[in-house]
Amino acid sequence: VQLVESGGGLVQPGGSLRLSCAASGFTFNAYGMSWYRQVTGKERELVAAISRGGGTINYADSVKGRFTISRDNAKNTVYLQMNTLKPEDTAVYSCSVMPFGRRYWGQGTQVTVSS
């Protein structure tokens, strides 16, 4: 299983970023996908999750109305569109999946929201 995130960077408050996670090594359309974030010294936080077909989506209260998770099963890719970013959104964002009885993580991409 390989998960490769991209799209992070430095953005000003109020700005937008779109994260991508390219997946391989498992049947992508058979599993739900999730985005997590972690700040150094704090616990990892579930940001958003999407079911295998995209019909069920959940968000953390802190990002509802600002972030949108989506997936393209033809491209084996899951996305996280982040709008109206706030300094408290600064973190390393990772995608995750749980095939074969264990959870897998990507290497993460840094998102920094600062003026």
Largest sheet, in brief, is: 7 strands, mixed
Class based on secondary structure composition and strand pairing: mainly beta
Count of beta strands: 11
| Share of helical residues | under 10%
What's the tally of helices? 0
What letter string, H or E per element, gives the SSE order?
EEEEEEEEEEE
Beta-strand level of the residues, as a percent range? over 45%
* Alpha-carbon distance between the two ends: 37 Å
Quaternary structure annotation? single chain
Low-pLDDT segments, ≥5 res: none
Instruction: Please tell me the overall pLDDT.
Output: 97
- Computed CA radius of gyration, to the nearest angstrom: 13 Å
Structure overview:
By secondary structure, this protein is an all-beta fold. It is built from no helices and eleven strands. The chain has strands at residues 2-6, 9-11, 17-24, 33-38, 45-50, 57-59, 67-72, 77-82, 91-97, 104-105, 109-113. Strands 2, 4, 5, 6, 9, 10 and 11 form a seven-stranded mixed β-sheet that branches. The protein has a four-stranded antiparallel β-sheet with strand order 1-3-8-7, with no helix packed on it. Strand 9 (91-97) and strand 10 form a beta hairpin. The chain is globular and about 40 Å long. The N and C termini lie far apart (37 Å). The mean pLDDT is 97.
